């Protein structure tokens, strides 16, 4: 295998969007589906070509992020942008996770899982904050984190009655 065959330009049509990259980029993650598809000595069935482009029936927004991941040698710096104002970040990361899993990119799958957990936590925290702001309950009435004014946690059982206002 010569370096010229490894660096061959590959034209892709992913979900109707055109991408141009190298075989080396597509083969960057050993064992991935892309590596199996595009490795020059692969026994994998040849991908479908239409008009000189390899057709992949996947999400083009997610695939752009996947290409960036492959180009950056697995360093994840995903910046998902969609022109569709109905898409939210969580839905886009779910789509990216699905496609990363499809292509066997475990590092990117793990990153997406972590990112999705952080998003869910942030959403829960925001909901809780909004609830506390719009209710008669105050965080100071909770036993968790209650202090006596000197920075020490209160230990008095009378002060730890969480439901005394009900």
TrEMBL record:
SUPFAM superfamilies: POZ domain. It comes from the Eukaryota. One of its GO terms (biological process) is protein homooligomerization. Residues 8-120 form the BTB domain. InterPro entries: BACURD1-3 (IPR045068), BTB/POZ_dom (IPR000210), SKP1/BTB/POZ_sf (IPR011333), T1-type_BTB (IPR003131). Gene3D superfamilies: Potassium Channel Kv1.1, Chain A. Transmembrane segments: none annotated. This is POZ domain-containing protein. It comes from Fragilariopsis cylindrus CCMP1102.
């Amino acid at each position: 295998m010569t370096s010229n065959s490894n660096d061959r330009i590959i034209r892709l049509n992913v979900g109707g969007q055109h991408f141009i990259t190298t075989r080396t980029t597509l083969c960057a993650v050993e064992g991935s589906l892309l590596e199996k598809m595009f490795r020059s000595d692969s026994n994998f069935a040849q991908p479908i070509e239409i008009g000189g482009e390899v057709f992949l029936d996947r999400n083009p927004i997610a695939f752009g992020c996947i290409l960036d991941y492959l180009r950056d040698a697995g360093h994840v710096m995903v910046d998902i942008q969609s022109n569709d104002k109905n898409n939210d970040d969580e839905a886009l990361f779910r789509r990216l996770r699905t496609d990363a899993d499809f292509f066997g990119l475990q590092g990117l799958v793990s990153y997406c899982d972590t990112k999705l957990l952080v998003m869910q936590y942030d959403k829960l925290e925001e909901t809780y904050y909004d609830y506390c702001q719009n209710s008669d309950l105050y965080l100071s009435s909770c036993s968790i984190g209650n202090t006596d004014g000197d920075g020490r946690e209160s230990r008095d059982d009378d002060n730890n009655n969480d439901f005394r206002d009900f």
